[in-house]
Design a protein that fits this description.
This protein is of the alpha/beta class. It has three domains: 72 residues, Elongation Factor Tu (Ef-tu), domain 3, CATH 2.40.30.20; 275 residues, 3-Layer(aba) Sandwich (Rossmann fold), CATH 3.40.50; 89 residues, no CATH class. The protein is 33% helix and 22% strand. It contains twelve helices and 21 strands. Helix 2 runs parallel beside helix 3, helix 4 crosses helix 5 and helix 9 packs across helix 11.
Length: 454
């Protein structure tokens, strides 16, 4: 491996090296300062004998002509071992919990290997999150990509930590959570770590933490670190893995920052034109493989700037993933936790993960009826605001009452309240007892007689 002293330009977190011969995209380089200090960088762009590098530890103190650059001819890698479970790592896969460095069984590129579409198995098994608004109406299925769309100030961090603590599968197979925090504050990182420790969920979890003060390039690497770890646990050790990544908006902002430093022509709202492809390279690493025991399920969380769901980040995410969980600011102001707005929320694979033998035979009918009844109750409530409650018919008044009880009792639940699927379905039937039997048109008669409340 040759060393070069041909650094010509330093711009922000980037350095330009000339006369360096054949260098590969994504290759890792070691930078040696005049005082002997070593830093690391990754090749972002190559052209003939030029290479543009992003420095992980920052470019402060790097002077053109006096800095030595050595290319390693290897991409950014992560060392993998079963001993990673229960540990906390930084954005480059280094231990962050004060424990020893795990001895890796193997090292792999964080970019992963593309899955052959023919080898993919269809997601069709239920994952319980313990949250009724998700399990009952927008069910999460093994191998699915189901993002949570939030807004600034909404409790998505608490929801992410709650799902990480409570998520389970019913088959008794090995289950693990890989949690990646991108660009979070120290307080948020400590909240995630201590929340998992308090319930013992840290023993089955792998955490990757990138603080807001850490280098931007780590924010680009950390989702790939987490997903490489998840692929190892799922497809080599047979775990069913739930990957939670928060906040993907910070990841996209890092992409925009690097694109601006590279002087790229910006796309919509200043984000790189390749952001769709970049996000797809992350989200599409979820799934199941035929003849493999494990699976990878993703729940990326993002904050919508100005609560705008047409913003490029949620817009592109929605194209790639199979649905979305929407958080509502009005529900949050009303004291509802978690403030999940079930009407615009959607899980496109819900019907594949519910039913007899997976959750319960009445799940599909009950979910459809709850959704339709709540939608009508919301419409009636909005009508009452415009025309006054006296303008409502008696049945509309009943639907308004149903909508209020639905939000207070079904959607709202404690931060440490873990409802199993049976409790969620029984609560749904209890709420439907508010409505006249003649209104329950989406439920089969046999289910109404077997599960319905008087």
């Amino acid at each position: 491996m040759k060393e070069f002293m041909t650094t010509k330009e330093v711009v922000g977190p980037l350095i330009l090296v000339t006369d360096c011969g054949d260098v590969g995209y994504g290759e890792v380089a070691e930078i040696t300062m005049p005082d002997g200090q070593t830093r690391h960088a990754m090749v972002l762009q190559t052209s003939h004998d030029l290479a543009l590098l992003q420095v992980f530890e920052g470019t402060s103190g790097i002077n053109p002509g006096t800095t030595r650059v050595r290319f390693t001819a290897k991409p950014l890698q992560i060392g993998l071992t079963p001993d990673m479970i229960g540990r906390v790592f930084d954005g480059l896969g280094r231990p962050k919990d004060g424990g020893p460095v795990p001895i890796p069984k193997k090292r792999v590129s964080i970019n992963g290997s593309p899955l052959n579409p023919v080898s993919r198995a269809y997601p069709n098994e239920f994952i319980s999150t313990g949250i009724s608004a998700i399990d009952g109406l927008n069910t999460l299925v093994r191998g699915q990509k189901l993002p949570i769309f939030s807004g600034a100030g909404l409790p998505h961090a608490r929801i992410a930590a709650q799902i990480a603590r409570q998520a389970t599968i019913s088959t008794g197979e090995e289950f693990s959570v890989v949690f990646a925090a991108l660009g979070v504050t120290f307080e948020e990182a400590n909240f995630f770590i201590e929340g998992l420790k308090a319930t013992g969920a840290d023993a089955r979890s792998v955490l990757f933490i990138n603080l807001a003060s850490d280098p931007v390039i780590e924010r680009i690497a950390i989702p790939r670190m987490a997903l490489s770890c998840a692929e190892y646990l799922a497809f080599e050790l047979g775990y069913h893995v739930l990957v939670i990544m928060t906040d993907m908006t910070n990841y996209c902002e890092a992409l925009r920052e690097i694109g601006a430093a590279r002087r790229e022509i910006p796309g919509r709202r200043g984000y790189p034109g390749y952001m769709y492809t970049d996000l797809a390279s992350l989200y599409e690493r979820a799934g199941r493989i035929r003849d493999k025991k494990g699976s990878i399920t993703q729940m990326p969380i993002l904050t919508m700037p100005d609560d705008d769901k047409t913003h490029p980040i949620p817009d592109l995410t929605g194209y790639i993933t199979e649905g979305q969980i929407m958080l509502s600011r009005s529900l949050e102001r009303a004291g509802v936790y978690p403030p999940i707005d079930v009407l615009p929320s959607l899980s496109r694979l819900r019907d594949k993960g519910i039913g007899d033998g997976k959750t319960r035979e009445d799940h599909a009918d009950l979910s459809s009826q709850l959704f339709a009844s709540y939608a009508r109750g919301r419409e009636a409530r909005e009508l009452a605001v415009i025309l006054g409650e006296s303008a409502l018919s008696p049945i509309d008044v009943t639907y308004v009452r149903f909508a209020e009880e639905f939000e207070k009792r079904f959607v709202s639940q404690g931060e440490f309240e873990d409802r199993n699927i049976t409790a969620t379905l029984e609560l749904g039937w209890e709420l439907l007892s508010i409505l006249p039997k003649a209104e329950l048109k989406r439920v089969h008669k046999e289910f109404l007689e077997k599960y319905g409340k008087a």
